[in-house]
TrEMBL record:
This is ATP-dependent 6-phosphofructokinase. The active site is at D132 (proton acceptor). Belongs to the phosphofructokinase type A (PFKA) family. ATP-dependent PFK group I subfamily. Prokaryotic clade 'B1' sub-subfamily. It comes from the Bacteria. Pathway: Carbohydrate degradation; glycolysis; D-glyceraldehyde 3-phosphate and glycerone phosphate from D-glucose: step 3/4. GO terms for cellular component: 6-phosphofructokinase complex. InterPro entries: ATP_PFK (IPR022953), ATP_PFK_prok-type (IPR012003), PFKA_ATP_prok (IPR012828), Phosphofructokinase_CS (IPR015912), Phosphofructokinase_dom (IPR000023), PKF_sf (IPR035966). Catalyzes the phosphorylation of D-fructose 6-phosphate to fructose 1,6-bisphosphate by ATP, the first committing step of glycolysis. Mg(2+) binds at D107. It catalyses: beta-D-fructose 6-phosphate + ATP = beta-D-fructose 1,6-bisphosphate + ADP + H(+). Its main location: cytoplasm. The keyword ATP-binding applies. The gene is pfkA.
Amino acid sequence: MANTIKKIGVLTSGGDAPGMNAAIRAVVRACSFYNVDCVGIYRGYQGLMEGDFEELNARSVRNIINKGGTFLKSARSMEFKTIEGRKKAYEQLTKNNIDALVVIGGDGTFTGGVYFSQEFDLPIVGIPATIDNDISGTDFTLGYDTALNTVVDAIDKIRDTASSHNRLFFIEVMGRDAGDIALNSGIGAGAEEILIPEEDEGVERMLESLRKSKMSGKLSSIIVVAEGEKSGKNIFQLAEYVEEHLEGYDIRVSVLGHIQRGGRPSCFDRVLASKLGVGAVEALLDGDSKVMIGLSHQHVVRVPLTVAINGEAKYDKELRRVADITSV
Ligand code: ATP
C-alpha cells in the first residue's frame, strides 16, 4: 500500500443511523493500524466548512461500538450545496493537512462527496449509512438491520393489543423511496397487507384482502405502510377509507416515527460497520476515490459513488410473493 495519504478525515452526514459510531471506530482504528493520522469532523459537511475538527486515535473511540446515533453528530448543510461552501471546506482541509475523506451517510452525502472530489481532486470514499437501505451497489446499508428489528419489535407489541380488542391497525414505518423496511418487517411480524413505494396496487386490493381475511376468520389485522407508498392517501386517510368501505372493523393508526432511527446497533450492523470502515481506509490507501464500500453477497466491494447514487432500486419481488402467500 504505497501512497501519499498521511491524514484522513471522517464525518457523518444526513440522517443518523445505528452503526455510524461503529463505522467511525473502524475507520479510526484502521488508520491507526496503517499509521495514518485520523481527524474526526463534527456535524458533517457543515462542520467541515467551519473547521470543527478533532484529532482521533485508537483510544478516542473506545466504548462507542455499541452506541446508537453518531458521536461526531450529523447535519444537513445547504451551504455545502454551493461551490462557495465547498471551497470553504477545501480551505479547511488544506489548512489542517487532511489528504482524504471518508464520508458516512446516504445518497445526498455521496452526491456532495462526488462534486467535492471532482472539483478539488480530493480522494473521497463513502460508507452507506441509512436505515432505508435505499443505496444501490450494496446489499445492506448501516442501520437498516437495527431499524428492522426495532420495527418488528414494535409491531409485535401492537399486535398484542390488536388481538386483544379485535382491531385493525395501520402502522406507518420509514421508507420514502424504498419499501425494504415495510416489506421485511411486514413479513417478519406477520402483517396482513404491506404497502410500499415501489408498487401501487391500489387501495381496492387492500380492501379485498381485508374482506377475505375477515371471511377466513381473522379477528385482528396489521397493515404495514411505508411512508412513501403511492396510493395518494396518507395513513390517516387510508384508515378512514377502509372504515368507510368495510363494516365491523375497529381501526387504529400508529406512526412509529423516530424510534426507528434510535437504539443500540444490532450485532449485524456492528460487524458490517467494522468491515466497511476498514474497507474504506484500505480503499483510500490503495489510491481509490469516488467509490462506496458496500457488501455484495457477503463480500466487501468498491462501487463507483455515481452507481450508488443513480443505480436501479433493488426491490425484491420474491418478498412480495412470500408476503401474499403467508398472509392468507
Ligand atoms: P438520508 O438518506 O438519511 O437522508 P443523506 O446523506 O441522503 O442521508 P441528505 O440530507 O440528502 O442526507 O444529504 C446530506 C448532506 O449532503 C446535505 O445536507 C448536503 O450538505 C450534502 N448534499 C446533498 N446533496 C448535495 C448536492 N446535490 N450537492 C452538494 N452537496 C449535497
